[in-house]
Amino acid sequence: MRPSPVPREAVVTDPPELQQAEYPPDILPVYVAKLYGVSHAPGDPETYPPPPPPPTDIASGEQPIIPQPPPATAPPVNDDVPVITQDGDTLSCTMGNWQNVPTAYAYQWKLDGTDVTGAGDMLGVTSGDIGKTASCVVTATNAAGSTAAPETAGLEIAAFT
């Protein structure tokens, strides 16, 4: 026959994932201060030194260095066809998405196949245009040349108030 076990006093502890980590007392105020938008923790100086000036051109020492996009080595390439939307008496044409860093966009609007001059990415319409079909061609330009996107799908101009 086996002897009965001797009862021991049980020690209860939380599993490791539930135990609270011990932090130095100066860390908690930083988190609290950041939560309320304060830029300093208690005990820190009220003001910090000003940020350093932007980098300058070593040769002149005057102008900040501003990164420039790479030079255009090819004309723009259209990734998707622009789209027309109507908001009241105004039509808008998106520029679409382009590769090769376009620097300018031109918009050519058409109403029922007839060119409309003097419009940019938005075209104002009148009640006489209701029922006509509008379309737009976007041309992107960079230093290497210009490329026209395919013509947008036609949009029938709806009544507006």
Secondary structure layout plus pairing:
Layout: H1 28-35, E1 77-78, E2 84-87, E3 90-93, E4 98-99, E5 104-111, E6 114-116, E7 122-124, E8 133-142, E9 145-148, E10 155-156
What does this structure look like?
The protein has 161 residues and is mainly beta. It has a domain at 77-156: Immunoglobulin-like, CATH 2.60.40.10. The protein is 5% helix and 26% strand. The protein contains one helix and ten strands, in the order αββββββββββ. It has one helix at residues 28-35, and strands at residues 77-78, 84-87, 90-93, 98-99, 104-111, 114-116, 122-124, 133-142, 145-148, 155-156. The strands form three sheets. Strands 5, 6, 8, 9 and 10 form a five-stranded antiparallel β-sheet that branches. A hairpin with a 2-residue loop joins β8 and β9. It starts with 27 loop residues before the first helix and ends in a 5-residue tail after the last strand.
